[in-house]
Amino acid sequence: MMAGWDELLAAAREMTTRSYAPYSKYPVGAAGTADDGRLVTGCNVENASYGLTLCAECGLISQLIATGGGRLAALCCVDASGTVIMPCGRCRQLLWEHGGPDLQVLTPNGPQAICDLLPQAFGPADLMR
């Protein structure tokens, strides 16, 4: 059974409390549903060397792979106040790879397909050319 947006928002908000954000003070939580109905979550993990910081979406994708793989079907990200936020460009690329063009992302303007958030994305098929 696929999680609804309310369940994903609650899980993402919970994940902000597990975030490690001592430098930016900007906790982020992410929650998604795999194509088999599994709930997967992640939180941001900062590093003193900012370039090594892991976004919440990275942790979520790691959990997706570690718990059996599959495709991501839906995702939301929130800040510490619980407000829906957009995945950064790097994470949009990661989400495309593991969700494909139809992955639904909850945005501040409602659900949108990742293909609308990352038009003309580079993906695995491009490596086959």
From TrEMBL:
The keyword Protease appears for this protein: no
Organism: Brooklawnia propionicigenes
Enzyme nomenclature, EC number: 3.5.4.5
Keywords: Hydrolase, Metal-binding, Zinc
GO biological process terms on file: nucleobase-containing small molecule metabolic process; pyrimidine-containing compound metabolic process
Protein name: Cytidine deaminase
Similarity comment: family membership: Belongs to the cytidine and deoxycytidylate deaminase family.
Entry annotation: catalytic residues: E57 (proton donor)
Protein purpose: Recycles cytidine and 2-deoxycytidine for uridine and 2-deoxyuridine synthesis, respectively. Catalyzes the hydrolytic deamination of cytidine and 2-deoxycytidine to form, respectively, uridine and 2-deoxyuridine.
UniProt-annotated binding residues for Zn(2+): C55, C88, C91
Recorded superkingdom: Bacteria
GO cellular component: cytosol
